[in-house]
Write a structure and sequence with these properties.
Blueprint: H1 2-19, E1 32-35, E2 39-43, E3 47-49, E4 52-55, E5 67-70, E6 76-78, E7 83-86, E8 90-98, E9 101-110, E10 130-133, E11 137-139, E12 144-152, E13 155-160, E14 165-168, E15 171-173, E16 176-182, E17 191-199, E18 202-210, E19 217-219, E20 223-226, E21 231-239, E22 243-246, E23 252-255, E24 258-259, E25 262-270, E26 279-287, E27 290-298
Parallel strand pairs: 2-9, 11-18, 20-27
Antiparallel strand pairs: 1-4, 3-7, 5-8, 6-7, 8-9, 10-12, 12-16, 13-15, 13-17, 14-16, 17-18, 19-21, 21-25, 22-24, 22-26, 23-25, 26-27
């Protein structure tokens, strides 16, 4: 009986402990909010994404929804998710409200082409950390997609000087990632570019190298032997880049004399020979600085022997 009572007591203690909420599972209470920018300057027509910083960070999941407002919507409006849109030159204050807490950002809207006044950055440079990996990208000519991992203590933006690189997203707050899509090469030479991350006074540059497209060119045949009576033949051209064709002889023609990348059906016409000797010529193809030849041989007329009988 004593043993049964001991088991019953232990079971009750365990059940009570399981039902008692632990300190780690207790929701964190929101103590305040701030914005990733206190002041911004943008030109008419541009947008900027404001982000809310919750204090403590763990309180974001249980915090009330953010209500966004602008004091001067004719100068700058703000969407339900904090995206600011510059309407006209002037100043507006954007307010984010979360329950009993508020945070503000002053927005100065500039005319297109107006030089902004560089404000004093409120963030101490010694407090800014910005690291990006990988530190460089080497892409094949076919292109690639690379995920760049960002470790940052503040808000950041990213941009590139190449139109063949697409970055998503173009900004963020603290740690995050950016997808860099590198388009396939359209030229034969190697191309280079930079992806630049900026967080206040700190910059990190990721160099990008993309291999050039390999040049390929082929013909369905590299030599044609024609009868003296002449004929028209089909020649298939398969090229990775645009090409042109030249031929000096007046007893043949080749159409078309140029083509785009891909497969092209061309027509070679060899005219009748009135000569007894064999004639030869070459059609010279040029693509991306490289030359290729199609050798043509035309038989001469046969010799006729006349006998006296």
């Amino acid at each position: 009986m004593k043993r049964f009572n001991l088991f019953l007591l232990a079971a009750m203690v365990l059940a009570f402990a399981a039902c008692t909420p632990s300190e780690n599972n207790t929701p964190k209470e929101l103590t305040g909010i701030s914005l990733n920018k206190k002041t911004i300057e943008i030109e008419v027509g541009d947008t900027y994404q404001l982000r809310v910083i919750y204090e403590p960070e763990e309180a974001e999941d249980t915090a009330p929804a953010i209500v966004w407002e602008s004091t001067k919507t004719k100068f700058a409006s703000v969407s339900d998710n904090g995206k600011v849109e510059a309407k006209a030159a002037g100043t507006a204050t954007i307010t984010a409200t979360c329950g009993k807490f508020t945070a503000e950002c002053e927005v100065k809207v500039l005319k297109k082409g107006e030089t902004p006044i560089d404000p004093v950055d409120p963030v101490d440079p010694s407090e800014i950390t910005l690291n990006v990996s990988p530190e460089s990208i080497n892409s094949p000519s076919a292109g690639t997609t690379v995920t760049l991992e960002v470790e940052a203590s503040q808000d950041w933006t990213v941009a590139t000087d190449a139109d063949w690189i697409t970055l998503t997203p173009e900004d963020g707050f603290q740690d995050g990632s950016v997808e860099a899509v590198i388009a396939p090469a359209t030229e034969t030479q190697t191309t280079t570019a930079n992806i630049v991350f900026t967080s206040h006074s700190k910059k990190v540059t990721v160099p990008v190298t993309r291999a050039g497209q390999a040049v390929s060119f082929s013909l369905s045949t590299n030599q044609v032997v024609s009868k003296y009576t002449g004929e028209t033949l089909t020649i298939e051209v398969d090229a990775s880049h645009p090409w042109t064709a030249q031929y000096p002889s007046d007893w043949l023609s080749f159409q078309p004399v140029s083509g785009k990348a891909g497969k092209t059906t061309a027509y070679l016409t060899v005219r009748r020979s009135y000569l007894y000797e064999q004639t030869e010529a070459e059609i010279v193809f040029t693509s991306e600085g490289n030359t290729y030849t199609l050798h043509i041989v035309r038989h001469g007329q046969p010799y006729f022997t006349v006998s006296n009988s």
